[in-house]
Write a structure and sequence with these properties.
Blueprint lengths: L7 H18 L4 H8 L3 H10 L4 H10 L10 H8 L5
Helix pairs in contact: 1-3, 1-4, 2-4
Length: 87
Amino acid sequence: MTIIASSVDTVAAGLMAAILEQARNRGWSQSELATRASVPESSISRIKRSGRADLDTLAKLASAVGLRLTLVPDRDYAEKLARGELF
């Protein structure tokens, strides 16, 4: 699953949506997800409402549903850099 977004808020909201989808696929409620991730249910509500999240909280939630947060190289950026188009 890949989520690409240009703003931090959008990324957090996209990650939260993906995590909640995985939890629903397992038949878990939001409360169950919070319990399994060892985070307050209010944190999930806050993330859903604001679209902002602490990275550690997102990592715990992702791990609870069998996902992990990972940074990968941006191929477009690397290709442009290699062609000398950026600087």
